[in-house]
Structures are given as C-alpha cells and as structure tokens.
Amino acid sequence: MDTLYEKAAAAAETVIDAARQMEAEIFKTYNIKVKVILFASSKNKDFLSILDDHDEEIYRGTLSDNPDKLRNSLERQAGFEKVMKSN
Questions:
Q1: What is the mean pLDDT of the chain?
Q2: Regarding beta strands 34-40 and 57-61, do their DSSP bridges make them parallel or antiparallel, or are they unpaired?
Q3: What DSSP string runs through 33-56?
Q4: 23/46: higher pLDDT
Q5: From CA 75, how far away is CA 29, in angstroms rounded?
Q6: Rg (CA), the chain
Q7: Could you tell me the pTM of the whole model?
Q8: Collapsing DSSP states into helix, strand and coil, what is residue 78?
Q9: pLDDT per residue over 34-60, tens digit each?
C-alpha cells in the first residue's frame, strides 16, 4: 500500500506542476491571472476548470475537449478584463 501511496503522491505532484505551468502560460499569453483546477478519477474521467482571480469560473471542460473552447473562453475573459481596467 505504501508504494501505491507514493505513486499517487508523485502523480499528484505532476498534476500540480502541470496546473502551475498552465497558469503561467495563460498569464503570459492572455495577461490574465487564473487558477487552474485539474482533476482525474479512477473512472477514466478528467476535469479542467479555470477560475479568474475572483474565483469565478470562466471555463469548465475536460482535457479531451477541443482546445478552441478553452481558447475562446480565455480570449473573452482577457477582453472583459481589459475593458474593466480601462473604466
């Protein structure tokens, strides 16, 4: 059981690192601060959620979704934040 626990802990670290990399890439590309939530279950389900800096969800989907859905949500959020900052 200890070996399985260690494998799960290592996998969790990999997922956390991927989420942080996604946050950095989104900030670099769209200039918006987000929180990335990645979730995976033993039922072969995955889940991706992107929250803005006010913890409002701006995207929800899976890792197998078309990346254009995510891109469109991020572009829309970047435009919204740009308008809000200019007012």
A1: 90
A2: unpaired
A3: -EEEEEEE-TTS-EEEEEEETTS-
A4: 23
A5: 10
A6: 15
A7: 0.82
A8: helix
A9: 999 998 888 878 899 999 989 999 999
